[in-house]
ATP-dependent RNA helicase
Amino acid sequence: MSSNHVTFDDHPRPDAQPEAGPSTFHSAGPSIHPDRLALNAVPVEVKKSKNKSEAQKNREKKKLKKRRKIEKAKKASAPKTNKKEWKPDPVLEALKKSTAGNVVTNLAEGEEEKQKTHKDEGSDGEGKVAGTVNGESEKEKRRREKREKREKRERKEKRKLEREAKLSATSSSALPETILAEESRDGQEDVPMEEDSQSAQAVVEQNDDEVGSDAGEEEKEEDQVDRQASPEPLEAFPLPRSAPAPAPEILAKQGLPSGLEDAEFIDQSLRIGLDDLEAPVKTVLGDVKELKTISERMKGKLRDTGVEDLFAVQAAILPQLLSLRLNPLPYDRLHDYLISAPTGSGKTLAYAIPIIEILSQRITTRLRALIVLPTRDLVIQVRETLEVLAKGTGLNIGSVTGQHSFTQEQSQLVADMETPLLGGSSKLDILIATPGRLIDHLTSTPNFTLQHLRFLIIDEADRLLNQSFQNWLSQVLSYINPPDPPRPLPEGFVVQPWDKVAPSWMEGLGLIDRKEEWNERPPVTCQKLLFSATLTRDPSKVASLSLTSPKYYIIQSTNLPSIPYNIGETFSFPSTLSEKMLILPSALKPLNLIHLIYSTEFSISNGLIFTKSVESSQRLLNLLQFFNDAFISGGKKVVVKGYTGELKSSERKRILSDFTEGKINLLVCSDLIARGMDLPSVSNVISYDVPLDMRKYVHRVGRTARAGREGTAWTLVEKQEALHFKGMMNTAGHLKAIRKVKVKEDDLSDYKESYEIAMKRLKDFYGRDA
Ligand SMILES: Nc1ncnc2c1ncn2[C@@H]1O[C@H](COP(=O)(O)OP(=O)(O)OP(=O)(O)O)[C@@H](O)[C@H]1O
């Protein structure tokens, strides 16, 4: 800033001796940078002149005190404005004088500048200068100047007070502008209130000549007092920023169970024939007692649905799960499992097959398996799969999602809601639920209990763990394994409905009397299975699951450049997926999409088009439909429909079935169906709006290339988004997998006329805001 700069003589004295000592302030000469000089000068500020007499100092102090008193009284009576008054920097002022006149300056007393010219006119040793100018002694001259400056300042103060008195009578809203107007009339520049200190400094510089340097010290002190009294300016409102992610290594190590650090990697291309799978059942000593296989009944069901071989995720997990007992023995080592496998790799069957195989041995119906999924559509989809596989086993499968009334769901869940039953009353063996509705039933449906749960499956686990859903996970865990009740029970202790039926509470409540030592509370035998294509290993989230000896399996392609052993999150992609991106100007995005759909080169069909929101989906759908109507010359008609959460579930069902049958070519959708939805006919996925994070990308592109089929994912990246998108892909080690596609502007010319018609219709449709 220029206020830190010092004007030096153009022609420095040849005999000037530069002194770079940090605490001295003699004429430094031009060889030292002025900024540096100013810095060096600062400590000198507090130094007193050795040459000054005590009496003189006292006199000056008294004067100073008196003047401050007057100033303070004025200030106290005057309302404050936001305008900052200029305060000269005494150091720099002194520096200017010092270098210009080549004098030694004492800064401690601004008004007591001592000048010592190189002619050396002499000093009386008490700060009196012997030389005279035009018959007026130097001292008299300084006094006169001082007086004039003081009078000038006082006049200015008076004017200011008058102005402010005038202003206080006007409305408060007009205050700042009026002050600024007045002050600019006064020879100062306007300083908008929101402007930062740099603008204020600019004003300071402009007024450099107005106030003499002799007043600098005292004004500086007053300014400091003023600044202390006035409130601190408010900080700017912070913009939202995501917290910096911890280093993957730290993330992976922080309290992560060792089983999760040493994940087992399974090659995505692994296949095992249905007849070849053997699950070893071990004795307490670890010897293999027997080899379990998939039952003939199950094999038949699987073959009926087109399953001949088991996919990698199934081949990895089934030997672990099939060997489990319905009622584990005390020495059975029960593990929890975390499975990260690509989209469409068959995770549903990886848990559906063993659950049905194990639970079909049960005699009485009790709720033994709970599957939690994030959306209603996924619950329906998984229920359909389970029902097909469980046919003929007598297992009862139900779901709660809020699609039906609460009482309807209650009657499906429990047989008896009237009698308080210690063991609860379940009509179901397997329940599939969304977390919110599940918690509703746990808290409000009598005799609905999780105490017999053998398997808790959390599908799309990262999504469910990321969203608290009324803190659903800790609630569910507490219902599986309620804490011991306080003993003895305090008076007036309220027993919750679930307390009445949970075995761990029975003793505390005096409902059972444990006389024998061996008659221990039955151990909780619920095993947790977590599945996702983007599974988190964030220690804090993993900790919330209270996992028991967890095992971690990652199913991925061995062709990947590097296997991310230690990253907090793994992203797996189907090996049959090819990925492409178009980097384009925003204005050409719709035309490029149209080109992808209508050109003979690409001719994209059987596709899902993802946008960033429901509104964007609707807008794009309208545009495509208007374009389709206008584009007659091509003769190609494309059936495009919308598929968003706004639609009724019956309507969504109808649209999906039309899409599967090929009656609809393209679905424009929000991210609602990006997760988990299994539509075998999807061969293209277009991200019209770039996904904001890697997870969204993985789940979007994962709607194609499922179950070993080929599929292509297209991402339209606006030029200004390219850096972010590529960075995101690069961080995930996935950028190289995406091929860049270029569309020449000439190729778009065929569509321009129809596009303009469509845009006009769109504008008419939305009004002028379109
Ligand atoms: N072994 C198999 N052989 C043939 N098809 C299979 C096999 N396993 C699963 N599938 C089929 O693969 C498709 C995808 O399976 P699924 O929905 O379980 O995938 P997913 O891994 O859960 O995917 P997402 O992560 O997207 O939810 C389904 O249509 C399913 O029927």
Notes: The two ends are 47 Å apart (CA to CA). The chain has 26 helices and 21 strands.
